[in-house]
Amino acid sequence: MVAVYKHGFSRQSLLASARPALFFVLFFFLVCLWIDPKLIYHGHGQYLSYQIHVPGMRTFVDSPPFPGKAVEYLSAILAHYYFYSWAGALIITLTAGLLSVGTDKFITPMDGGRYWPLRFVPAVILLMQYGRYYHYLADSLSLSLGLLFLYLSIRIPLRSAVPRFAVFLVFSGVMYTMAVQAYLVFVILWAIFEFFNRRNWRIGLLYLLSAVLIPLFANMLFFNMDLFDAYRRMLSLEPIADRGGLILKFSLLFFLPIAGLSCALRPFLAPKRESERAKPGRTWMFLQYYRQSRLRWPLETLALLIVTAGALLLTCDRFAKIHLRINYLARNKMWNELLREARRLPAKDYSVFVCNDVNRALYHTAQLAYDMFSYPQHPSGLLSATERYSELDTLYELGHINRAEDTAYGALALADYYPTGLQKLALINILKGQTDAARTFLHALSKDSLYKDWAERYLDRLETDPVLSADEHIQHMRSVMLVEDNLRRAVTATDDLYLILLEKNRLNRMAFEYLMAWFLLNGHLEDFIRNLNRLDDFDYTDIPRHYAEAILLYTGITGRIVDLHGRKINVQTVSRFADFMQQSQSYKYHLQNAFKSAPNDSGDFDNLSNSYNLEDFKDTYYYYYFLVGLQQQK
């Protein structure tokens, strides 16, 4: 320690350096382990909307120039590495560090370092933003660049107002051109510093006036945009659906002007009188003791860390995280983990998209016909009416290749760059024997370092075996894919989508289970019973639980006997249905008519089922059947 003192470092300076170090270590682990940036990357084009740059596929000159393009380009490059959570966490942490240093350099000249916690506020706001799972990197980088320019202007020893204004014009032009997202904040910060630190209100007003004129001249000289769009970009008015995300976005951008103005005005608004300073009251004595205590640094540092972690935990969107994680697990075919994650999601937060992923996981774990109704369901829970990107995988696995191809091209048109879509288009063209087209997509993917190995592996295999005759996956897909596309029929009736796949290959197990699940979800018991004989095409030794529940329900409603083709219904399933019937025998009519007495409010269905002790049957098909019937009556 003595050696340290000899080199000019004091205990205070070491402690001052240790506090930011501890803060950003905690920050990194919160981002890496709690937020998990790979969910942001894999949510691209799904729940989020932002461009991801791929070196070699899109260049800086591909699109017309516009204000802020440079920062958006840099943000897109960096966001590509969110693919790895540790790399994404490092990028976000470094960005937060730049904001913290810039805040310190701006506020310290005005408050003398008295309000040190303020330097960490932008980093905490950034952490809270990422907890909402929106992509804010461009705003943060733009604000960091503005703070860098302001710091450089402070360090340049210019006493005269004219040279300072000339420097401002240069920085301002660069800022508007490269980082327009925080341009207005940049101008306000320069004006505040000029007003209160250099005491020159005239040049400060010129700074503010330039915020009106520079966009006008920049648009005339460099950009060919509508003037309204030029000012809209400066105000950063891009729509954000989430109200909390919108508040956090503008909190980050305008915290510094508010904090700087508060620090600058404080001496004028609350001057301390000499007589008040001299009064040695108890509070004053306690503060004096606290300031000199060795406990001050650890207590303040601990408070900073607790507030940081608490701010994230209180404001994070846990359900958005679960949705993104479910989507991520579906993309990576981690089915058991997906189902465990889905059990954490309350029924009211199940979207149609979550149902799609859950049902796909149930199929791949051989549980779709047995445990489907153990999870919240929706009539469009297999394929939604408006297909989203993740349904590309479902269509592909089913064998409806042409529809999957249309979905992939639509995804590319909307998302600009969509690696999963490129992968599927490459495989689809291999299936169709269109190897030249497949190579085009594979060469495009090979320029992406994250998918390079996968693409080059298929390129090498195409050289030796153009039809991939030894590839089990390719051969399986060729056995189930449609040779002749009947797209019109498939679109007009969802069950036809599965039926034409079964016409192509009656052993397409996924098409069969999805067809039967679709009948159950939509209450088509007659169609379900009519296709029950397809069980003979597969290795079902018994009647799957949900099929058995539907058969019992159909028999109870119609009184008809169903041919089970030599199979038996599990005794426990029959017993549960009998219990359900017994607990519902107080109704005059058959069960479906009985539920007509339910209140019109859909939320009261649960109260109705509770009053008749039906909660134990929530994982059964007949419980779902009556819920759907009730909703349809409304």
What is the rounded distance between the termini?
78 Å
Oligomer: single chain
Percent range for β-strand residues: under 5%
Mean pLDDT: 81
| Number of DSSP strand runs | 0
Structural class estimated from helices and strands:
mainly alpha
* Total of domains: 3
Radius of gyration: 32 Å
Summarize it.
The chain is mostly helical and 634 residues long. It folds into 3 domains: 2-270 and 280-315, no CATH class; 317-387, no CATH class; 509-633, no CATH class.
Characterise the protein shown here:
By secondary structure, this protein is mainly α. It folds into 3 domains: 2-270 and 280-315, no CATH class; 317-387, no CATH class; 509-633, no CATH class. It has 34 helices and no strands. The chain has helices spanning 2-6, 11-35, 38-42, 69-79, 85-111, 121-131, 137-155, 161-178, 183-196, 201-221, 227-235, 243-269, 274-278, 282-292, 296-315, 318-331, 335-343, 352-364, 368-371, 391-398, 401-415, 419-431, 435-446, 452-464, 472-480, 487-492, 494-504, 509-521, 525-530, 545-558, 571-583, 591-594, 604-611, 621-633. The longest helix is centred in the first third of the chain and has 27 residues, at 85-111. The model is unreliable at 1-8, 45-50, 486-492 and 587-612 (pLDDT under 50).
